[in-house]
User: What shape does this take?
Amino acid sequence: MLAVVEHSARKKGDESTAAGTEPRNRASSGAGRGIWSGSISFGLLQIPVTLYTAESRGNELHFRLLDKHDLSPIRYERVSSTTGKPVEWKDIVKGYELEKDQFVTMEPEDFAKANVKATQTIDIQDFVPRDQIDTAYFSKPYWLVPQKRAMKAYILLRDALTKMNAVAIATFVLRTREHLVAIMPAEDALMLEILRFGHELKDAGTLPLPSASEAKSISDRELAMAQQLIEGMMTDWDPNKYRDRYFQDVMKVIEEKAKTGMASEHHARVPGTVAHDVVDLLDLLKRSIAKTGRAANVQEAEPKKTGGASESGGSPKTSRKSKRRRAA
Assistant: This one.
């Protein structure tokens, strides 16, 4: 049985669509094209830069939905929920639902009134300590590349931020929307990271998290053992060390089915015991430490209390702060 079957009834209009999807699956060579050009406003300095995407989309998986009977691609239609009939684009408007089934319709000119006027400037508002920005606010990374006439000013900003361990907080308009961004040094470059606004993150206080009384149930010995396990697995951040195993396994399955029509299982079972209140945490921690093979000898005795921290917890390695995210 051949797993790769071309849909023979493809219409001419579908050919361009199918052919057009293929180049998007391949990683582009080099840096690609800049998506925005302007200047960083740094005091009275204007630093001309070009914005490049920092994400690599070459290894993304793309699938099309097909009719299983003849493998014809599935098309989506815009259908009225009332009449069940297709609706033309010219008859479609955008609506914001205030209450159930009560909408405020919006026209293109309404959105234009809300759009911030686009400028060619990244306006720095503040400088903040780098370690104060929670990574949860990071949304999308870009590279800032200096234009030829701005090399010296670019280096000046990059090196000053590095020396101060600081991040520039700025605003700029990309396409039609104003974004809050962080500009930070990343090796020899400046990275621009689009930030989420405060209202875009849910408050952790609304989640069913452990209570203060439940936190007190953790013994000093259990905490010391957990610190010892972390100590044994502590290392420097290297994004190239990690691989997208799901992508690799799916591609293997695709290749196998293309050749034989059959595929074998590629994932391994994940061993472990679900941690809950009945489980002996100390026993699980001891076995975990022994399994890593990188931790110090398991401390059977109660840890010495030195100002509320164990010896393993006070190690210089555990106090080392993780480096911020960089593009692979």
